[in-house]
Write a structure and sequence with these properties.
Layout (H helix, E strand, L loop, with lengths): L1 H4 L3 E6 L3 H12 L4 E7 L5 H8 L3 E5 L7 H9 L6 E6 L5 H9 L3 E4 L4 H12 L7 H12 L4 H11 L4 H11 L4 H8 L3 H15 L4 H10 L2 H5 L1
Parallel strand pairs: 1-2, 1-3, 3-4, 4-5
Helix pairs in contact: 4-5, 8-12, 9-11, 9-12, 10-11
């Protein structure tokens, strides 16, 4: 990507609130390694902007009048070389956020997140990391627990059957909200080995990030069994 080649992270901002967009542009403008490539007030304009500017990260609002951020995220992640999507929301336990995460969003931020954290989150997702704390991950997962059905659990278990024993152990640990260092300690592995297992897990399950792994493990109800 052109901006990446220059050592800068290209960002597209999508939000129907002009004041929010202005604030985000100001935040990003203060970071020497980040450049805002374009803005949009609706999710319907995102695909065209992404094709035109090839951003590394899209900051995506959820609630927009024509095409919402969930639909836009699903469309973006279906691209051959999609940008990372960081969802913006006013609710930290919104079931809509779960849909975005399942679609492949790298995580989400509350709109009242301190500017320095928003900027750092953009940097993290540009490097392929997820910005979702273990506590928030578990709270989001618990939000859908009451709505889980046997059919979803069966589908999740069939997908997880592609993993070998050690990979499954790592996946369950991710579902518990553990960091790579915590997983390494618990399973008597090195951190590089855990990272290798994580890469294999994502490839075998055709997932984008560890948040999706955590959701799949929860869907399979493996956390209950591990406890």
């Amino acid at each position: 990507m052109s901006e990446t080649e220059r050592g800068r992270i290209g960002v597209v901002i999508v939000d129907d609130d002009a004041l929010v967009r202005v604030g985000l542009v100001m935040m990003m403008g203060g970071a020497p390694d980040i450049r805002v490539l374009a803005e949009a007030e609706d999710g319907g304009a995102v695909l065209d902007l992404v094709r035109r500017h090839s951003p590394d990260v899209v900051l995506m609002d959820i609630r927009m009048p024509t095409v919402d951020g969930l639909t836009a995220t699903e469309r973006l992640r279906a691209l051959e070389s999609p940008p990372e999507v960081l969802v913006l929301t006013t609710f930290d336990a919104d079931e809509h956020v779960l849909r975005a995460l399942r679609a492949g969003a790298a995580g989400f931020l509350l709109k009242d997140t301190p500017p320095t954290e928003i900027v750092e989150s953009v940097r993290q997702v540009s490097r392929g990391m997820s910005v979702l704390s273990p506590t928030v991950t578990r709270r989001l997962i618990d939000r859908v627990g009451a709505n889980d059905h046997g059919e979803r659990a069966d589908r999740a278990r069939r997908r997880l059957a592609a993993l070998n024993g050690r990979e499954l152990e790592v996946a369950v640990a991710v579902g518990e909200g553990r960091s790579n260092a915590d997983i390494a300690s618990a399973l008597f592995l090195s951190v590089p080995t855990v990272k290798t297992h994580m890469s294999n897990i994502l490839t075998k399950l055709r997932l984008n990030n560890r948040v999706q792994v955590a959701l799949l493990v929860h869907d399979a109800r493996l956390l209950d069994e591990s406890g």
